[in-house]
Amino acid sequence: MKDTIQIVGAGIGGLTTAHTLQQKGFNVEVFEAAPEIKHVGAGIVMANNAMQIFKKLDIHQQIEAAGNIIYTMKITDEQLQPISMVDLSEFAHKYNVQTVAIHRGDLQQILFDVVGNSNIYLGKRLKKIEQHADCTLTFEDNSTVKSKYLIGADGIKSIVREQLFENSTIRNANQICWRGICDCELPEKYQAVAIEAWGSGKRFGFVHIGKQKVYWYALINLKNKNIEDIQLTDIFRDFHNDVLKIIEATSQSQIIVNEMTDLKPIFKWQKKNVGLIGDAAHATTPNLGQGACQAIEDAYAFGKLLDAGFSIDETFKHYEKIRLNKAHFIVNTSWRIGKMAHLENKFTISLRNAMMRNFPKSANKKQFNKIMDISYLDDLIKQLR
Ligand SMILES: Cc1cc2nc3c(=O)[nH]c(=O)nc-3n(C[C@H](O)[C@H](O)[C@H](O)COP(=O)(O)OP(=O)(O)OC[C@H]3O[C@@H](n4cnc5c(N)ncnc54)[C@H](O)[C@@H]3O)c2cc1C
Fold first, then answer.
1. How many A from CA of 14 to the centre of ligand 1?
2. pLDDT 10s digit of each residue in the chain, 385 long?
3. For residue 196, what are the β-bridge partners?
4. DSSP readout, 150-185?
């Protein structure tokens, strides 16, 4: 029997990595702070790169069945008039797998089930970690676990990163984001499209995650506003009526609010047999919808290195070398898009929109190709030899 690998954090990154390692014959123990997996009020888009990996793990069909397949992504103005569009069916044809919008809780449950209840320890919040030859993990309930191989998948505020790695900076994007889910009947034309409407210093995105279930998000520039005083229907009054309908159809209990942050790129994700993955290593603003997809690529990178014949020690050592560039490309590009999306001056907005409308389709496609491609890992692994 191969070694046991401990993972802190049962988010999308931790669970996908756990399942990948199980498939390579390792035992896993996943420690999660939350006492239960909550059905939080948000959806998520699993882009083609993530879905290709789920296909290799043979769980893509479950995810497609639980969510809603989307074929187009549009950026629009306030009145839902397109500024830019990406045809996702091209990637579906190329890679033979779809892009899926899904309830986060449903995705989490699918991953939880494949990893197996008996390998996941809930209510285990890591409070202290010491690294000698092995690591000693101490949890808030004062229980301890020894770990020879450890993966920190504990999110942007990672304790593993904070206690074992050099200082890192969480950056505030000065934008606040509401996310909600509602049951509503929208016109058929929206069924297979993810739309993000850009206004002045604000934007509103929505996508179906089921036949009559819509996940939406709304972002505004944060300017010392008191969140409690904000009425979203007032803020988005100048948007298309369908936007207002969606907000009005959502009950308050189905809305969550966060400030937008990311992790300023760090260049060390590994210290002996401890590795950071997902948001713990490279949290990004959500403007490319790639944070979780990149965590899933981390899991895939671990599996690819093992498949290539590297030992588990070598896998920990090499993993950051093959993942840093792409993950940092996403963090940096997403940060720039976030700023571009929230311009406030009417003149610069019309200039931006005109430029985006005339942006060559081929250049747009090239950027998306780079994001959806996961074969770059094969090339980088060859260079390690
Ligand atoms: C508004 C918004 C929209 C987004 N939309 C998308 C999208 O459409 N597509 C996409 O790919 N990504 C999206 N993302 C990004 C995505 O949510 C994250 O990148 C992804 O969830 C990261 O997964 P993770 O497993 O690395 O970390 P997390 O999801 O943060 O999971 C970390 C886990 O570790 C646990 N934990 C934390 N501390 C401890 C501790 N001390 N001990 C034990 N357990 C601990 C947490 O409880 C949690 O379960 C979005 C993000 C935001 C904010």
1. 9
2. 689 999 999 999 999 999 999 999 999 999 999 999 877 779 999 999 999 999 999 999 999 999 999 999 999 999 999 999 999 999 999 999 999 999 999 999 999 999 999 999 999 999 999 999 999 999 999 999 999 999 999 999 999 999 999 999 999 999 999 999 999 989 999 999 999 999 999 999 999 999 899 999 999 998 766 777 889 999 999 999 999 999 999 998 889 999 999 999 999 999 999 999 999 999 999 999 999 999 999 999 999 999 999 999 999 999 999 999 999 999 999 999 999 999 999 999 999 999 999 998 888 889 999 999 999 999 999 999 8
3. 75, 205
4. EEE---TT-HHHHHHS----EEEEEEEEEEEEEE--
Rounded to two decimals, the pTM is 0.97
- The structure tokens listed for 97 are 């797998």
Read off φ and ψ for residue 119, nearest 5 degrees: -100, 0
Cα(13)–Cα(259) distance, rounded to whole angstroms?
21
Q: What tokens does 80 get? A: 């839902």
Pocket mutation for ligand 1, best pick of 109, 154, 196, 296 (most atoms within 8 Å of C-beta): 154
DSSP string, 121-137: ETT--EEEEEESSSEEE
Ligand 1: nearest atom to the Cα of 294 = 11
Q: Does the beta carbon of 282 sit less than 6 angstroms from any atom of ligand 1?
A: no
- Protein residue with least CA distance to atom 30, ligand 1: 155
Structural domains of the chain, ranges and CATH numbers in brackets: 1-36+122-171+270-342 (3.50.50.60), 38-116+173-260 (3.30.9.30)
DSSP per residue, 232-244:
HHHHTTTS-HHHH
How many Å lie between the centroid of ligand 1 and the Cα of residue 1?
Answer: 31
11 lines ligand 1 (CB under 6 A): yes
**What is the spatial distance between Cα 317 and Cα 314, in angstroms, rounded to a whole number?**
5
Q: Which atom of ligand 1 is nearest to the CA of 179?
A: 1
